[in-house]
């Protein structure tokens, strides 16, 4: 197994009396695309800033390529950062912008020009070398910022919400391009976002953060299918959450008393323990489903057509506090005011660590 490229060990950070990171440890592998995902205030941007050298942590260490970089300034560590506002120099040509980092390193003009042209070709902007930033679209300026960061061949490229200023169509296009570029250059990318869709589109390593801690991490498919905590289940996609109490636990299965009735499923928990269960919207079945776990009946409050499916919100008739979020086929005839049976498979119910 290859050594970790980045090793963040027990990092905590405070701004005054406010703790923004709380004993965070994280490893990043060579060639990976890591997404730091979380709401505002979760600590993801502070963690990126510590990795980039813009902030020195109050406690803990940051190792890059096995070297302690905790107190190394940004210009002297093997990282570069792409910011949301791109920070291009308006008076410089695109080529000069891309070559600026090389210029600061003392690279000669001919080599700078050649490398800048190569980097612009990599991001599909070979023809923009002599243009000024104001002559480019938002998506093109974003790619120039990416080329400028990649041209100095960093060990780790840091991206701070780089797609946040783009419209939806362009953002999706740039997601595809970012992933393709990362695969071509093989550099490890660490990308901050609060957008779940962006995380699932780009990451091979997803890190879900909340209140200064890492709640969950792993491949996005795993984090989505088997979230570790209640927060992860509701932030990385939507979930219906049922709370309950374990009434029986034996032979690798548990029975849980919930507002929707008793539910038995594989898992381990102590009898009497308070637990939470999650069900993803695509796993809820509206209408009779023989052989599935019954979750009672629910009154439909809202139906939103979303192209390939209908997003259905419904309130349990057994407990008004229990709200179901379901994906129904686009052809489904369900309407607000309908009362429907709700069920799912036991294998699709997630027992959360909470």
UniProtKB/TrEMBL annotation:
The answer on whether this UniProt entry bears the keyword ATP-binding reads yes
Q: Where is the ABC transporter domain?
A: 6-236
What keywords were assigned to this record? Answer: ATP-binding, Nucleotide-binding, Transport
Judging by the UniProt lineage, the source's domain of life is: Bacteria
Q: Per the record's keyword annotation, is Hydrolase included, yes or no? A: no
Q: What Pfam families is this protein classified in?
A: ABC_tran, TOBE_2
Q: Which GO terms describe its molecular function?
A: ATP binding
Q: Show the PANTHER family listed in the entry.
A: SPERMIDINE/PUTRESCINE IMPORT ATP-BINDING PROTEIN POTA, SPERMIDINE_PUTRESCINE IMPORT ATP-BINDING PROTEIN POTA
Which family does the entry's similarity section mention? Belongs to the ABC transporter superfamily.
The protein's name: ABC transporter ATP-binding protein
């Amino acid at each position: 197994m290859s050594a970790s490229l980045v090793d963040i060990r027990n990092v905590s950070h405070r701004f005054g009396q406010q703790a923004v990171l709380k004993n965070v440890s994280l490893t990043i592998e060579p060639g990976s695309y890591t997404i730091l995902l979380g709401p505002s205030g979760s600590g993801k941007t502070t963690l990126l800033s510590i990795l980039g050298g813009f902030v020195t942590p109050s406690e803990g260490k940051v190792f890059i390529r096995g070297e302690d970089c905790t107190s190394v300034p940004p210009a002297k560590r093997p990282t570069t950062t792409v910011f949301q506002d791109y920070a291009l120099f308006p008076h410089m040509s695109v080529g000069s912008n891309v070559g600026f980092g090389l210029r600061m390193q003392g690279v000669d003009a001919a080599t700078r020009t050649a490398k800048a042209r190569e980097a612009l070709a990599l991001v599909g902007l070979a023809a923009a070398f002599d243009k000024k930033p104001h002559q480019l679209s938002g998506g093109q300026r974003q790619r120039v910022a990416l080329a400028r960061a990649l041209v100095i061949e960093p060990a780790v490229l840091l991206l701070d919400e780089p797609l946040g200023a783009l419209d939806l169509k362009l953002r999706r296009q740039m997601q595809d391009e970012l992933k393709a570029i990362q695969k071509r250059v093989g550099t490890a990318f660490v990308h901050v976002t609060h957008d779940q869709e962006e995380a699932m589109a780009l990451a091979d390593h997803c890190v879900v953060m909340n209140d200064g801690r890492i709640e969950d991490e792993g491949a996005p498919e795993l984090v989505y299918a088997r979230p570790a905590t209640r927060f992860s289940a509701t932030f990385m996609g939507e979930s219906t959450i049922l709370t309950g109490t374990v009434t029986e636990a034996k032979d690798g299965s548990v029975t849980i008393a919930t507002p929707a009735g008793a539910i038995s499923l594989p898992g381990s928990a102590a009898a009497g323990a308070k637990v939470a269960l999650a069900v993803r919207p695509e796993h809820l079945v509206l209408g009779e489903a023989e052989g599935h776990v019954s979750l009672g009946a629910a009154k439909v409050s809202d139906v939103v057509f979303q192209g390939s499916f209908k997003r259905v919100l419904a309130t349990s008739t057994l407990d008004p506090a229990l709200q179901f979020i379901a994906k129904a086929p686009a052809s489904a005839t369900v309407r607000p005011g309908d009362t429907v049976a709700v069920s799912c498979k036991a294998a699709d119910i997630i027992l959360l660590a909470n």
